[in-house]
Amino acid sequence: QVQLVESGGGLSQAGGSLRLSCAASGRTFSSYQMGWFRQAPGREREFVAAITRAGDNTVYADSVKGRFTISRDNAKNMMYLQMNSLKLDDTGVYYCNAVRGSRGSWGQGTQVTVSS
């Protein structure tokens, strides 16, 4: 089972940018479909973006489309989320997710706080 560690969260003003990273363990990273989810205080965890195993197809939640970009580097076992034009509603804990077949793994999360 792949292990995931997120980094890159922090504090940003509205309109600013942050780049999240997700480091995966093991030698089978390229066999996992990857995604980002987030959870705001008092709310359920929600989907943000996903990327296919080869990185040739992506999908985004409507709320982040045009502002966020998901990418991956299979040679480095890394996934990224470039977040631009941040809004107050983007505040939350961001989680990295890996799926292969019926199995999934989650990272511990990284906090993103957007202030006005």
Describe this structure in words.
By secondary structure, the protein is mainly beta. The protein has no helices and 11 strands. A hairpin with a 6-residue loop joins strand 4 (33-39) and strand 5. The protein is globular, with a radius of gyration of 13 Å. The N and C termini lie far apart (40 Å).
Backbone structural class: mainly beta
* Rg on CA atoms, Å: 13 Å
| Mean pLDDT figure | 97
Strand count, sense and closure of the main sheet? 7 strands, mixed
Tally of DSSP helical segments: 0
Determine the strand fraction and express it as a percent band: over 45%
Q: What's the end-to-end separation, in Å?
A: 40 Å
Overall number of strands: 11
Oligomeric state of this protein: single chain
**Rough shape?**
globular
- Low-pLDDT residue intervals, each spanning 5 or more residues: none
Q: Helix-strand pattern, N to C?
A: EEEEEEEEEEE
Helix percentage: under 10%
